[in-house]
Design brief:
Layout: H1 6-18, H2 21-28, H3 32-46, E1 51-54, E2 57-60, H4 62-93, E3 95-100, H5 108-118, E4 123-128, H6 131-140, E5 145-149, E6 157-171, H7 181-187, E7 190-193, H8 199-211, E8 219-222, H9 225-233, E9 238-242, E10 253-257, E11 264-271, H10 278-289
Parallel strand pairs: 3-4, 3-5, 7-8, 7-9
Antiparallel strand pairs: 1-2, 5-11, 6-9, 6-10, 6-11
Helix pairs in contact: 1-2, 1-3, 1-4, 2-3, 5-10
GO molecular function: DNA binding; DNA-binding transcription factor activity
Keywords: DNA-binding, Transcription, Transcription regulation
Pfam family, one: LysR_substrate
């Protein structure tokens, strides 16, 4: 049997309940000929006569009575499904899914706080994700806003608000004003976040080491920034990190700035302009209005 359109089941159930083609047609906003055609189509698909027509209206045949309960059950399930889908869609419209990376640790939480003050009914769901993963999710519609390394993938819109640089986090116990990158790497192991978690940072570290012609094998010790900083502060090693980590650097750690052959990259906010979302647009306006206050 071919698939049955739900409108045919709706016509069948409505006519069975109303018992009259004229009343059922009014209920369904159809003409009587259009309703008759739908019933005939359903009879053809099911292989049996569904109604007997008489002076007192339309009554179910034995076959029609046998399949009525199942048809009504399917119709009600269809209605429940549509209502459930609408409910979920309404909930999702009041959720803002957002991604961010290392370089936006400082500012994004502040913007979220400001957003909540204005739109308390909208929940912000945020995840720490690599820029490449964020851009893929933005294109797929699984993310509304991403704070990513530029440039963005084709099809996405973006707004640059910050230029990030690289620095070397070193333990306070061994820190001296005269310390250089070379001496720090000679004295301590080079630690790093798992490249699968922070591929951009791993790439920038590799580019810098190549630019100064220094060979060092980073040891991936964690996928968590707080743990990595704690390891550096405890004297376990050094790590190349975005300069913006100075805002939450432990007291037992210091940053060495890379004076020569500095590595720079742009950080911005990205979104998919093909997908309409008014809450996303509210958040973007907040970000762009507050750009002058950004201190990274």
């Amino acid at each position: 049997m071919k698939g049955i359109d739900m409108k045919l089941l709706r016509a069948f159930v409505t006519l069975a309940i109303k018992g009259s083609y004229s009343n059922a047609a009014k209920e369904l906003f159809l003409t009587q000929p259009a309703l008759s055609k739908q019933i005939q189509t359903l009879e053809h698909l099911t292989g049996g006569e569904l109604f007997l027509r008489g002076r007192h209206g339309a009554s179910l045949t034995v076959f029609g009575q046998q399949i009525f309960s199942k048809a009504n059950e399917l119709l009600q399930s269809h209605i429940e499904f549509l209502n459930y889908a609408k409910e979920i869609n309404t909930r999702n419209r009041e959720k803002l899914f957002m991604g961010f990376g290392l370089s936006s640790f400082q500012q994004v939480p502040k913007w979220i706080n400001q957003f909540h003050q204005q739109f308390s009914e909208c929940e912000v769901v945020i995840n720490h994700l690599p820029s490449s993963a964020q851009m893929k999710m933005l294109l797929e519609g699984r993310l509304h806003i991403g704070f990513v390394r530029m440039p963005v993938s084709k099809g996405l819109a973006s707004y640059i608000f910050y230029e990030e640089t690289l620095a070397l986090a070193v333990p306070m116990e061994g820190y001296m004003e005269s310390m250089t990158i070379q001496s720090a790497l000679s004295a301590y192991p080079l630690l790093q976040l798992d490249p699968s978690t922070s591929p951009c940072l791993a790439e920038q570290t590799s580019l810098f080491l190549q630019s100064i012609q220094l060979s060092a094998e980073p040891v991936s010790v964690t996928n968590d920034m707080t743990t990595l900083l704690a390891l550096v502060a405890g004297g376990n090693g050094v790590a190349f990190l975005p300069t913006s980590v100075r805002h939450f650097l432990p007291a037992e750690a210091r940053l060495l700035m890379l004076a020569e052959k500095q590595i720079r990259w742009n950080i911005g906010v990205a979104w998919n302009p093909k997908i309409k979302n008014h809450r996303r647009d509210d958040f973007l306006r907040l970000v762009m209005a507050g750009e002058a206050d950004i201190v990274m």
